[in-house]
Amino acid sequence: MTALARTRTATTMAFRDQLRRPLVLILIVVIPAYIITRSIAETLATPRRIGLPDGVFVTTTIGTSTAPGWSASSWRSSPRCLACS
């Protein structure tokens, strides 16, 4: 029996075993997906005041601070930086 045939047999047996006992599937797929979905649904866009190292404070929300292009090199030139103007 070649290594490929052994691997195929072991994989088939593992999937057959998981069909009988779906605990691993539930723990690895369903529960994390539920937690992530609940976290996204409950995140509020509450403005926060963030202190930067230069003593500058920026008021932002989670949506604007994680937006593309919002990096350490571009925050001063960003129109979202309220303290820089």
Structure, described:
By secondary structure, the protein is mainly alpha-helical. The chain folds into 2 domains: 40 residues, no CATH class; 41 residues, no CATH class. Helix content is 49%, strand content 9%. It contains 3 helices and 2 strands. It has a two-stranded antiparallel sheet. Strand 1 and strand 2 form a beta hairpin. It is elongated and about 70 Å long. The relative contact order is 0.08. The mean pLDDT is 75.
Instruction: Count up the domains.
Output: 2
Sequence of strands across the biggest β-sheet: 1-2
Structural class, judged by helices and strands?
A: mainly alpha
Order of helices and strands: HHEEH
Average pLDDT metric: 75
Cα Rg = 24 Å
- Unreliable spans are none
Silhouette:
elongated
What is the terminal separation in angstroms? 72 Å
Strand content: 5-15%
Oligomer: single chain
Largest sheet composition:
2 strands, antiparallel
Total DSSP helices = 3
Helix content: 40-55%
Tally the beta strands. Answer: 2
Topology:
Blueprint: H1 3-20, H2 23-42, E1 48-51, E2 57-60, H3 62-65
Antiparallel strand pairs: 1-2
Quick overview of this protein structure:
With 85 residues, this protein is mainly α.
Name some characteristics of this structure.
two-stranded antiparallel sheet, single chain
